[in-house]
Amino acid sequence: MYFSEILIKKFSDNMAFAVPKTKISAKQRKRLRKKKIKIKAALIILIMISAVILYYPVKRKIERVLHPAPIGTVKVDWYKDLNPIHLKYARRNGVSPFKTNNDFAEKIDELQKEKKLVEISDNRYYRVCHLTYSHAFLTPAAKAFLNDLGKKFREKLDEKNKPDYYFQISSLLRTRENQKKLSRINGNASPNSSHLFGTTFDIPYFTVIKRTFLWNEAEVTDGTASKLLSEAIGELRKEGRCVVVTERKERCFHITVKK
Hints:
This protein is of the alpha+beta class. It is built from 7 helices and 9 strands.
C-alpha cells in the first residue's frame, strides 16, 4: 500500500502544473494608472456636459408643474353688502371683541370649551394662509358655513371638469390690537370691523390652491375657478346664510355669517 501511494503521489506531481503569473513592470503600472485617470476625467466631463444640457429643460418643466401659468381672465361677481350690515350680524351672532392679543390668549381655551369659538385649519376644501393680523378661530356657525361653501365649490368644479382646487382664507378673528396695527398699513381697515366678533373671514379670489406634485401645492390663477367660487358664495348669500362685499383692492370676498 505504501508503494502504491508513492506512485500515485508522483503521478499527481507530474500531472500538476502552475499557472504562471504575469509580472507587470513599474512602467506598465504607471501607464495603466494614467489611463484610468483619463477615463475618469472623460466620464466626469461627460456627466457635466449632460447636466448642463438637461438643466434648463428640466428646470422649465419643474417650474411649469409647481407654478402653472394663469388660465383665463379673473372676473367674479360683485357683492355690495357694506360694513354696517356686516356689523349688525357680527354683533348679534359673535363673541365679545378682545382688546389685546394677550386678552385673546387668556380667554380662548375657555371659549373653546364653551364651544363659542372653534379653531380653523386646513381641510379638504380650503387652506388657511399665513396669518399676521388675525387668529385662526371662528364661531361654529362660521366654520359650518366654510365647509358648506367648500362642498358647493367642489361640486361646481366637478361639473366643469376642473381640478380639485382649494380656496384660501386670508383673515379671520382679529383683536382690537390686531385691527389697530392693520389700520396703519391698510386704509380700508375700519376700527369697527366685523372681524372682531369671530363671524367674519376673507377669501381671496384672484388665486386658488392646486396640488401640483405629490404633497406640493401652489397658488394658481384660474379665471373659471374664481368665477365658480363667487357663484357658490352668491348662492349661499341668496339662501340668507351670509352677507358679502367683494373688495377690489384686497382682491377678496369679505364674508360675515348670518346664522
